[in-house]
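Incident log, support desk, overnight shift.

02:14 A customer reports that sequence design results differ from what the structure should imply. Their input is reproduced verbatim below. On-call engineer (initials T.W.) acknowledged and began investigating.
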C-alpha cells in the first residue's frame, strides 16, 4: 500500500466518523427538541459543515494534485495527534450524552455539565477540532489545507463559541425558560 492510499483510507475513516457524529447529533436533536430544546446560531451551521467538508476534500486533493510527500517523523506524529483528537471528541460526546450535538441546542432546566473533559475545559470538543484540523492534513504534509482550514475554522469558532456561551448563560439564568 502506498502512503497516498493509506492517507486516503485515513481521511475516509475520518469522513465515516463524521457521518457517525451526524447520526448521533440527529438522534440527540430529536431528543432535545422533544424536551423544549432551543437552537442558537443556526445560520453559522452551513459554514461549519462546508469547512469540515473542505478539510477532508482539500487534504485528498492536495496530496494528489500537489504530490505532497509522506515525511515519517511529521506523518506519524500527526497521525498520533489525529487519533488523540478523535479520542477527545468521543470523550466529549460520551460525557455530554444526549446533550451533545453538532448544533447549539439548549434544553431548558438542565445544569451545565462539569464532568469528563468539561472539568478542565469549557469547550474541549473545539480543542479536538482545532487539533484535528492541523494534524490530519499534516499526516501527509498537506500544509495548505491545514493552514486554510485553521484560519477558516478559527473564524467560525470565534462566533460559535460566542453563540454557545451566550446560549448557556441565558439557559442558566434564574428566569431562563420561564423559571
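02:41 Re-run completed on a clean worker. Output:
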Amino acid at each position: 500500500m502506498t502512503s497516498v492510499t493509506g492517507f486516503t483510507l485515513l481521511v475516509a475513516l475520518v469522513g465515516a466518523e463524521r457521518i457517525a457524529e451526524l447520526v448521533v447529533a440527529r438522534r440527540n436533536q430529536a431528543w432535545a427538541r422533544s424536551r423544549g430544546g432551543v437552537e442558537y446560531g443556526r445560520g453559522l451551521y452551513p459554514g461549519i459543515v462546508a469547512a469540515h467538508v473542505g478539510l477532508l476534500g482539500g487534504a485528498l486533493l492536495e496530496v494528489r494534485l500537489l504530490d505532497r510527500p509522506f515525511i515519517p517523523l511529521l506523518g506519524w506524529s500527526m497521525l498520533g495527534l489525529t487519533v488523540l483528537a478523535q479520542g477527545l471528541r468521543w470523550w466529549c460526546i460520551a460525557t455530554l450524552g444526549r446533550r451533545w450535538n453538532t448544533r447549539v441546542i439548549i434544553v431548558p432546566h438542565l445544569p451545565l455539565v462539569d464532568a469528563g473533559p468539561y472539568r478542565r475545559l469549557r469547550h474541549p470538543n473545539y480543542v479536538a477540532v482545532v487539533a484535528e484540523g492541523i494534524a490530519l492534513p499534516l499526516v501527509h504534509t498537506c500544509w495548505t489545507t491545514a493552514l486554510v482550514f485553521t484560519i477558516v475554522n478559527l473564524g467560525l469558532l470565534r462566533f460559535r463559541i460566542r453563540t454557545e456561551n451566550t446560549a448557556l448563560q441565558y439557559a442558566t439564568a434564574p428566569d431562563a425558560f420561564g423559571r
